[in-house]
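Researcher: Next entry: Sensor histidine kinase MtrB (Nocardioides aromaticivorans).
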Amino acid sequence: MLRDLWTRLSPAVRRALTFWRRSIQARVVASTVVLSALVVSAVGWILLQQVRQGLLEHRVDVVLGEVDAEMGDARDRLEAASGREVNVGRQQRDLVDPIIDRGASRGYSVVLAGPEGEDIPLREGGGEYTSGLDLVSVPEDMEAHFDGVGRATAWTYTEIVREESGESSSVPGIIVGSQVQLPSDGKTYTLYYLFPLSEEQETLGLVTRALLTAAGLLLALVAGLTWLVTRQVVTPIRLARQIAERLAAGRLQERLQVTGEDDIARLAYSFNQMATSLQRQIRQLEELSWVQRRFVSDVSHELRTPLTTVRMASDLLHDARAGFDPASARAAELLQAELDRFENLLVDLLEISRFDAGAAVLAPEDVNLDDIVNRVVTAAQPLADQRHVRVMVEHPDDPVRAEVDSRRVERILRNLVTNAIDHALADDPTEAVVVRLASDEEAAAITVRDHGVGLAPGEAAMVFNRFWRSDPARARTSGGTGLGLAIAQEDAHLHGGWLQAWGRSGQGAQFRLTLPRRAGATLRHSPLPLIPEDAVSSDAAVVAGPDAVVPVQEVDR
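Model: Predicted structure:
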């Protein structure tokens, strides 16, 4: 599923994800910027709340002081006019008009409502001297607060709505209500003062823009500084990686440049010392390996001629053994058997020398792996009957086809099946050597499972060594040379495949051969598990115990 999702991504996204996965510098810079952004956002939000609260508190104090002054002036003017005969409408206008004039110059509006007890709700058309306001600007809870006589001055926040040129506009504001009694009719009216917060809103917007600009510049500065700081550490690491890749490619003379005396310089110095030591040891091993390969190749070729002569003499003796005495006839048979064994060893040595010299050539063809497995199992059946071991093959429903060299794959499977029969539990009808096949779109896999003595911890990494045997005292029923698994592994590598081993003492072993279905393709997974299903629960118990060691060899993953 993940592979399908990865293939559906665009190339640009895949390149970006690859860069993110491989670049420590990018991840450090990104994480630093994200954390800094969170901190800056939190600090900026706190500062904005404090600025907003301060602006509003200051504006409320100013508004309340101005309303107290207006109401005091209004009451003085009403007391001065109480002795004259003035109608109610005239007195209302004398009360409100000066306030409206001052409000127009100072930026606030006035709404007169009343008389209390018999007034019409503002939202139903009540109220006078609205100064172009929509009466929805007066909150209902504020109007309900002054629904009566003798109410104290109150204020709250509101949204001031105006109708201009058929279009409605609104700004946040503060509304302050206070009651006054007209001498002309003795009734109480309520004056609502509406002060817009436009200036405070502009100030808060200016502060917000300034904080955003400062935050952006700060984050850019943090990103730049983090990039420069991490670059000082990452650049030497990248150079060390490049030198390590060149060393792995065989350019053993490459070294890091040592500058200064800090930790990075000491690391470079230690790296160069390690590279020098490795170069010296690798050259010694190469010389020893070259001598060994040359010795094996020369000895193998030189032994061909005398072996042919000895073989001819042995054949004559073996054919004439009927006329010998029993001891001489037995000696002739032993000589023939050991010559067969010696020829097999010589053939394996020549094959190994071809692999060492890089002369092994692959001849792939599209074949059915089921047929190869059947041939190998049929050829091994006499040995299985001799050892009283059952050999079972589990074929999938569909044929398992792949582009492989059938001769080499057959040699690999012959070694695996023969070894499994050699190490299986004889005379046990409940246990058998099981050969399984499976395939998918990219790979084909074959596992050979036995329930014999198994492998001790650490031996799974050694089974492919040349001439290695798990039990040197154990007789070779099949007459092996000790090079079979080493050659099998080389054959698997020649296909670009894997040959892997799993084993547990007393639980048997399993070998898995994984091959690409197309010649030259790269393997990324195997259709069959390396650890058999009947051993998973047992492995969990072992891992949970004191010696948590799972001897699984993953070759060239």
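Model: Note for the record: Residues 24-80 form the longest helix (57 residues).
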